[in-house]
């Protein structure tokens, strides 16, 4: 059994699908199916139970292999990273978690410039809400993540990248559309359109409303900021969005209004584990991003 075979196994577990795992690894499904069958034959166990035509779940034996395979692959990656550093070879792979809003607003140009300078370093980007990104950096599934501050300083090193505030977004037909600024308490009776619970903004906005003495009337939740904006444009509710997103909005359909009393900060930071090993590639990425945002 090779490390590569364990990596295939871990991807099948991650995606709970042979097809999706094959797509993620850029190999064919028969290749990954053959590999899993080879592991099962070598160990004399069944690793996955097939339920119906598409769904698979781990067997007891598969769960035991999962616990050990993750450690073995991580140890192997640590060893190869150290050898790469020793040989001063600028190669590697970085797993980076980005909330959808962050990816759209800030990172495409930075990723392009990084690739120009380090063409042999692969960036594996994963889009999740900030809360899930933070959890997966903590568990080691991601090397680096971008999250909404505050974070757990005892667990993570961090660099603050962006300091902005939340703005009120309403349709041009809304009663507040001509207001230069609005207090949060004035939104007590408004229908709110929020991000899903995986997003740190979900909890931040609800907590801010509760501090002003009311529970927001949440009529819809989404993981997509552009869909939320379409709902706002249809006058189905209001939204609180970062300044960076508000710059992308159509002023013919939406109004962006300063939110006051209180001002709600939107501070983004890049995080990584304090006790985790940082590969050469990850350290180069951190230094590169810090320089780009500094400029």
TrEMBL record:
Q: Which ranges of the sequence are coiled-coil? A: none
List the taxonomic lineage: Bacteria, Bacillati, Bacillota, Bacilli, Bacillales
Protein keywords? DNA-binding, Transcription, Transcription regulation
- Entry's NCBIfam families? trans_act_CidR
The record's similarity note reads: Belongs to the LysR transcriptional regulatory family.
Q: Does the keyword Transcription apply?
A: yes
Looking at the record, the residues that make up the HTH lysR-type domain are 1-59
Q: Does the keyword Secreted apply?
A: no
Q: Which Pfam families match?
A: HTH_1, LysR_substrate
Q: What is this protein called?
A: CidABC operon transcriptional activator CidR
Which PROSITE patterns does the annotation name?
HTH_LYSR
Q: Which InterPro entries match?
A: HTH-type_LysR_regulators, LysR_HTH_N, LysR_subst-bd, WH-like_DNA-bd_sf, WH_DNA-bd_sf
């Amino acid at each position: 059994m090779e490390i590569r075979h364990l990596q295939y196994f871990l991807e099948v577990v991650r995606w709970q699908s042979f097809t999706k795992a094959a797509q993620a690894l850029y190999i064919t499904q028969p290749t990954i199916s053959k590999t899993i069958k080879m592991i099962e034959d070598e160990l004399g166990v069944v690793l996955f139970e097939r339920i119906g035509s598409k769904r698979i779940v781990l067997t007891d034996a598969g769960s035991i292999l999962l616990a050990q395979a993750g450690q073995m692959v991580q140890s192997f990656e640590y060893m190869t990273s150290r050898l790469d550093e020793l040989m001063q070879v600028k190669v590697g792979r970085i797993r980076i978690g980005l909330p959808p809003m962050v990816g759209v607003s800030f990172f495409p140009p930075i990723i392009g410039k990084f690739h120009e300078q380090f063409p042999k370093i692969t960036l594996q980007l994963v889009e999740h809400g900030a809360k899930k990104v933070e959890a997966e950096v903590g568990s080691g599934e991601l090397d680096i993540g971008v999250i909404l501050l505050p974070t757990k300083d005892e667990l993570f090193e961090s660099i603050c990248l962006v300091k902005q505030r939340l703005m009120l977004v309403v349709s041009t037909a809304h009663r507040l559309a001509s207001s230069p600024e609005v207090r949060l308490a004035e939104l007590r009776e408004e229908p709110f359109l929020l991000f899903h619970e995986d997003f740190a903004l979900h909890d931040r906005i609800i907590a801010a409303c509760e501090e002003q003495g009311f529970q927001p009337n949440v009529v819809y939740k989404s993981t997509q900021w552009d869909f939320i904006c379409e709902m706002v444009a249809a006058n189905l509710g209001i939204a609180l969005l970062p300044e960076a997103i508000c710059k992308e909005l159509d002023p013919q359909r939406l109004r962006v209004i300063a939110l006051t009393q209180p001002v709600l900060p939107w501070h983004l930071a890049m995080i990584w584990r304090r006790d985790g090993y940082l590969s050469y590639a990850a350290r180069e990425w951190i230094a590169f991003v810090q320089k780009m945002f500094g400029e």
